[in-house]
Structures are given as C-alpha cells and as structure tokens.
Design a protein that fits this description.
single chain; Arc Repressor Mutant, subunit A; Serine Threonine Protein Phosphatase 5, Tetratricopeptide repeat; four-stranded mixed β-sheet
C-alpha cells in the first residue's frame, strides 16, 4: 500500500493513503518538480536556489530556498521522510510503496519503447494503457521554471511515442476500439502526425464509422493547408480514396520514404517544442 500519493500530470495533489489531500505551501511544487527532474532526485542548495530564483543573486536565492524548505517541512506530518535536507543537499526520499504518477508513466513508457515486442501480450498493453491514462495534462503545467519546462516537453514526447506504439500494438492484435481510442488521444495532441492520422482513419472504418474516417481526413487536409501549405502525404490520400470508394477493409498502404517532408515535420515539431520552453522560461 502506498504511503505518499503524488499527482503532477494535469492536477497537482499530494496526499497520504487514506487521509485525503494535504495542503502545502505553493513553492512545494516547483521544489518537487526540480527534484524529480534532477539526477538521483537530489540537488545541492546552490543548484536548486539558482533554478528556482534565477533572477536573484546567490545569497538572496539561498535565503529564499531556506525559507521555502522551512515552510514545507513545517507543514509535513511529523516524522515524514519525503523531503530530506542533509547539509548542502536537498533530496526526495521516496519509499517503495509511494506513488508518483509521472514516475510510473515514465517507467512503463520507456520499457515499452525499449522492448516493443512485450506489447504482443494483452496484459502488457493494458499495463501501458493504464500508465498512459495518468497523463491527464502537462507536467506541472502552471509552473514555468526552466528545468520543469524542459521536463514537461520530454514527458510529452515520451507520452506521444508510447501512445503511438500502443495504438499500433492494438491494431496488430485486432483490437480496433482500443486502437482507435489511443490514436484519437494521440491526434488530439499531435494532429500533424500523419501515421497516427492514417491509423485513426482505418480504425474508424474498422469500427463501422466510415463517415468519421472521411471527416478526419478533411480536418487533416485543412490543417496541413493552413499550417504548412502542403497536402497530405500520398499514402494518406490513397487511404482516403479507398475509404471514399467504399472498400470494406481500407488499410493505409506502406509509407514510402519522403526524407524532405519528414525532415521538415521533425524540424517543425522541435521548433514548436523549443518555442514552448522559451515562452515558459520568459513568462
């Protein structure tokens, strides 16, 4: 049974199992986010102070940190082991039964991406789906400190890659409802990803919604025209034509290599990610 329960994806909440939410000073969340993004979940006082108060000189930042740590620790239950301050080190002391949504998602997604063959098993797909279901919003979405902004984008990319892998695995297993649900979640966050759009169109057809498949294509076509002034890839157009012609089991053809286009889309995604981080850091 978990002792501490921490939610950082979408909502911010800390509780003890069976005792309900705990109210901590607002600075707790930037402190927690910085520690979770740090190697070993530990930082020196100087490093943490610099990350959380970059606009202050070193002495002033350290004073702010000392005050923040005192306020946090004074509000934690007596004998807590969640936050440890030892000399110049501040670290997160998680126990075996503590639950942190972002850590579970991160672990399960990285395992799936490293060993995709595991998803041939239904129980592994269900485990990954449960973990990805924890992504109810961006990582500490209201916090704009630089290390948190970088971690937010890393987790977003990890989530999307694992979600596509799950959708493909469900498709391969013939679970079209599950494949459609995963593809819908992915396209809602990253609508320019055409491989996911083709999978979603095919899943709509396999689930008996040919009209939804054609509507999805029209939305993609309009989006690409407005955002990039380009048409969908040949494979996507071919799939839409097959669906429109009423082919019973329309499937996307194998994607051919289009290095220039794929390179442009990758650069665009990286630029979007960089711009979000810069905007967050600049406030």
């Amino acid at each position: 049974m978990a002792s501490w329960v921490l939610h950082l994806l979408g909502d911010e909440q800390i509780s003890r199992m069976g005792r309900g939410p705990l109210s901590l000073p607002d600075i707790w969340w930037p402190v927690l986010g910085s520690l979770l993004a740090a190697p070993g979940r530990s930082l020196s006082r100087g490093a943490m102070a610099g990350r959380l108060w970059p606009d202050k000189d070193e002495d002033a930042a350290r004073h702010c940190l000392a005050t923040a740590l005192w306020r946090i620790r004074s509000r934690l239950p007596s004998g807590q082991r969640l936050l440890r301050v030892d000399g110049d080190s501040v670290r997160l002391a998680l126990g075996r039964f503590d639950f942190v949504d972002v850590l579970l998602l991160d672990r399960r997604a990285r395992v799936a991406l490293r060993e995709p063959q595991r998803l041939q098993l239904g129980r592994e797909r269900r485990r990954l789906a449960r973990a990805l279901g924890l992504y109810r919003g961006a990582y500490l979405q209201e916090r704009e400190q630089e290390p948190i902004a970088f971690e937010r984008e890393r987790l977003r990319t990890l989530y999307l890659d694992a979600l596509f892998l799950l959708a493909e695995a469900e498709r391969a297993a013939g679970n079209w409802q599950a494949a459609r649900a995963a593809a819908q979640s992915l396209c809602a966050v990253e609508p320019l990803r055409e491989d996911a759009q083709r999978l979603l169109m095919t899943a709509h057809v396999r689930c008996g919604s040919r009209a939804l498949a054609l509507s999805q294509y029209k939305k993609l076509e309009q989006l690409l025209a407005s955002e990039l002034d380009i048409a969908p890839m040949a494979e996507t157009r071919t799939l839409a034509a097959r669906i429109g012609a009423g082919e019973a089991a329309a499937e996307a053809p194998e994607a051919s290599s289009d290095p220039a286009r794929e390179s442009m889309l990758r650069v665009r995604r990286r630029l979007e990610s960089s711009i979000r981080i810069i905007d967050a850091v600049l406030g």
